[in-house]
């Protein structure tokens, strides 16, 4: 289904590593041919840590509109913007919700390019009918409405795109601030 209904980006800063063809050997399905992520990519998991500002101090990222800047905060905002646009491309099909959106499934380069990987667990729905239920999700990126279990139970419950939007907001917060918005805080007296 995904190979027949692809999501591709025309933006040179974004690659959605989508399956483009099913692969078979001796009539047996063995996997998918997928788009390759940007060379020299690192997991967003690494970039969201506190050390980002020092690493990117003298790096210039290009944003979607072509503007550039040297400020580490600006760089984090560019990554957040590119990621939001990639999610928008997936959601505007009205077919797919990633559900397992997390920093480990996002690769970025030092120039701000974003690749979305690990697309094997997304939800597929068409015309309000569930075609494939997402089998996995990550607890730390699950929205509050996911905690009562109703959306995740067996059946034909369709998970809305707001699930991915919440996951994105948590990742953007982590990228900009350096910690999970619902993590345990610490206080250091002056």
Q: Could you explain how this protein is built, in words?
A:
This protein has 190 residues and is an alpha+beta fold. The protein has 4 helices and 11 strands. The strands form 4 sheets. Strands 1-9-8-4 form a 4-stranded mixed β-sheet. The protein has a 3-stranded antiparallel β-sheet with strand order 7-10-11, with no helix packed on it. A two-stranded antiparallel sheet has the order 2-3. Strand 2 (19-25) and strand 3 form a beta hairpin. Helix 3 (72-91) runs antiparallel to helix 4. The longest helix has 20 residues, at 72-91. Mean pLDDT is 81; it is low at 50-70.
Terminus-to-terminus distance: 57 Å
Q: What's the average pLDDT?
A: 81
Gyration radius, in Å: 18 Å
DSSP summary: helix tally: 4
Secondary structure: helix percent: 10-25%
Q: Which structural class is indicated by helix and strand composition?
A: alpha+beta
What share of the residues does DSSP label as strand, in percent? 15-25%
Looking across the biggest beta sheet, what order are the strands in? 1-9-8-4
Question: SSE order in H/E notation?
Answer: EEEEHHEEHEEEEEH
Total strands: the figure is: 11
Largest sheet: 4 strands, mixed
Unreliable residue stretches: 50-70
Quick overview of this protein structure:
This protein is of the alpha+beta class and 190 residues long. The protein has helices at 44-47, 52-55, 72-91, 162-177, and strands at 14-16, 19-25, 28-34, 42-43, 61-62, 68-69, 96-97, 106-108, 114-116, 123-126, 129-132. The chain has a four-stranded mixed beta sheet with strand order 1-9-8-4.
């Amino acid at each position: 289904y995904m190979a027949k209904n692809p999501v591709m980006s025309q933006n040179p800063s974004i690659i959605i590593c989508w399956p483009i063809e099913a692969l078979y050997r001796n009539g047996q399905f063995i996997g998918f041919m997928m788009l390759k992520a940007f060379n020299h990519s690192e997991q967003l998991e690494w970039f969201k840590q506190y050390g980002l500002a020092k690493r990117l101090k003298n790096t210039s990222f290009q944003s979607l509109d072509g503007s550039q800047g040297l400020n580490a905060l600006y760089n984090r905002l560019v990554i957040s913007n590119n990621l939001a646009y990639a999610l928008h491309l997936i959601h505007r099909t009205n077919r797919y919700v990633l559900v397992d959106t997390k920093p480990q499934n996002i690769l970025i380069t030092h120039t701000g390019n974003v690749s979305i990987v690990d697309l094997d667990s997304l939800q597929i729905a068409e015309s309000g009918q569930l075609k494939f239920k997402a089998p996995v999700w990550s607890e730390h990126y699950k929205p509050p409405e996911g905690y009562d279990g109703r959306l995740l139970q067996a059946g034909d419950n369709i998970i809305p795109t707001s699930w991915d939007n919440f996951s994105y907001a948590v990742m953007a917060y982590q990228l900009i601030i350096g910690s999970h918005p619902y993590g345990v805080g610490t206080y250091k007296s002056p």
